[in-house]
## 1
Amino acid sequence: MKTHPFDWVLLSIIAVALGIWVFTNYGIIHEKHLTEATLTEKTHGENGYFITVDDQKLKVKNTSTWMILKPGESYEVSYEWYGNNHPYIVEINQAHDDDSVGSGH
């Protein structure tokens, strides 16, 4: 069986594309900051504690922080995610307030 250079080029392109996809999905932590984000819903279950702000469902790792957040209030929220994980809160603060509510790194 004879291999052609075209086969190696195609295989190389596929390997590079797959490597880029894996790196961008699992090797990079994506960050986002929301200002004046209104908390619309709080939920909890077996997977943890979650809030919904600006139609984005975010995981709250600190249960004490989750308990003091109030639906209908506006917050400044910084969150991160990578891969297929739920976005999780890194920092949350009441809008127009310099005192942090909690959940820092």
## 2
Amino acid sequence: MVTVLEGINAATGVEVVAYERFVVGRRAGQSSSAAAGERTRTMVGEVEAWARGAQWRRVYARSAAEVKPWATDLRLAAAGLLDLTKGMRHARDAARHALYCAVRDLGLADPLSRRAGAR
């Protein structure tokens, strides 16, 4: 996995990483297998270690409960991300985190704001 992440970094020069923090709870217990939670925690740990490995990279980890109420389908559509993630639930969740980070942490305009051209 780290090889894939380094390849993405070499091709794009990733400076900001936003991802969903794994929260152990009722929904995590409903996974398709008992090992799914462990694999997810391992993967998140690898991403976090890679992301924090570069001093210049900013890392933002947030729970779904923090991001989803704001990063609605309406906002994703206004940002042009809803159709791109059609049928891909996890990609759509990743888009929510990316949009939330872009607006909240990087100062981009809220796609529903007048500043972004919304009416």
